[in-house]
Amino acid sequence: MILTSGVVLTGLAQRPAAAQTSAADKDLIFRTTEPRNGEPELAKLVQGWITPNKHFFVRSHAPNPEIDPAEFRLHVDGFVRRPLTLRLDELAQFKQHTITATLTCAGNRRIEFNQEAPVGGVQWEAGAIGNATWTGVALADVLQQAGIQEAARHVCFEGLDQIQKGESTIPFGASIPIDKALLSGREIGALLVTKMNGVTLPVDHGFPLRMVVPGYIGARSVKWLGKITVSDRPSKNHYVATAYKIVKQTEALDWAEAGPIYRFLINAAIGSVDEGATLTAGPVELSGYVLPTGIAGAKVERVMVSTDAGQSWTAAELTGETQDYCWRLWKAKVQVTSQTEQLIVRAQDSSGGFMPARVPWNAKGYLQNSWFRLPVQVQ
Ligand code: MTE
Predict the structure, then answer these.
(1) 316-362: per-residue pLDDT in tens?
(2) Cα(204) to centroid of ligand 1, in Å?
């Protein structure tokens, strides 16, 4: 047991997890390697509705912790009648569910904000997104066993990673509203996941246990989950109280005024053509992904592609399955001419979500979902 900043971390070994993280497991472009932050080439990403683990982006704020599954314990405390300490084999006794959900980083497409003014952080292109099947236990079932008290309003999660923040070391944390946490049955609000695409959760993705919160930005899906705390307020963890908010400036008042981001926004990208590619004038087949807004029941209604700076648009054909909180793939045949400088894609969904021509710049470069514009040359 290691004590860090007053947080009890159990099952956490003290050496780095290099042995569990073989570079060969991943086919990603790593933006940073320590910690590991990588995204796939878009052409590989849009090959299938389910993203294979090797092409699934990794976003981590600290080196992977090495966790001994035999020593691992999940603590459930806060506004509950019966605090729990659960081993993995005890968690396995709960009803197991498999869901499909798209995970996307709030910073996906961050790099595009730099055209207006520089933004810090991992310089993500459009690959910080992936769609996988997730197997595990409904958070609602665990909370039911613990017994929720009347005052419960939010459920906070804490990871077993150790992130260096100035002088202190903090875990990654998140929280979600209690109503989302308690969703179960046809729609599971949050899942405690032990398997990804049918195999043991890879260490990059949170082995042995992570949250997956369908419809919410990836930052709410805490990896290497060690603690769940039921609370009357959102988490005080840095990644809820300060980071992952839309602010123009990074003064204390800006952080205080802005609320945490929960749902992801509709988004889309072209995956079949590389930026700056040289195309031959005439018909071109394009394909890509489109993600509806992270609201229950939101369906992609239209994906439109333009080769003439938005003067005319061609409707794309949607492929892949339609499931809540999951992306779809699309394909379109368009004409490019010597006038074509960009391929543009935009989309709208049944919840009223749409991709605007431009989104206002924000200091942390989150939620970039303007028309996806891909510069090309045409011969
Ligand atoms: N959980 C922990 N413990 N530490 C982290 O750094 N990153 C978050 C989230 N959960 C993070 C975490 C962010 S910002 C994202 S986008 C997703 O994990 C990425 O999940 P993935 O690496 O499995 O794709």
Answers:
(1) 999 989 999 999 999 999 999 999 999 999 999 999 999 999 999 99
(2) 9
Looking at the structure, tell me whether residues 55 and 164 fall in a common domain.
yes
Q: With respect to residue 262, please indicate whether it lies within any of the assigned structural domains.
A: no
User: Are residues 319 and 244 part of one domain?
Assistant: no
pTM of the predicted protein model: 0.94
Pair 309, 357 in one domain: yes
* HSE-up (13 A, CA, CB side) for residue 313: 13
Instruction: Establish if 152 belongs to a structural domain.
Output: yes
Quick one: 200 and 333 in the same domain?
no
Ligand 1: residues with CB < 6 A are 56-61, 103, 105, 159, 161, 172, 205, 218-219, 221-224
Atom number, ligand 1, closest to the C-alpha of residue 62: 6
Which of 12, 33, 60, 124 to mutate for ligand 1's pocket (most ligand atoms within 8 Å of CB)?
60
Digit-coded pLDDT (tens) for 79-100: 999 999 999 999 999 999 999 9
Domain total for the chain?
Answer: 2
Tell me the per-residue pLDDT of 101-125, one tens digit each, with 9 for 90 and over. 999 999 999 999 999 999 999 999 9
**Ligand 1 probe mutation, 221, 245, 261, 264, most atoms within 8 A of CB:** 221
Taking alpha carbons only, the member of 219, 25, 184 closest to residue 103 is: 219
Which domain-ending residue is among 195, 229, 257?
A: 257
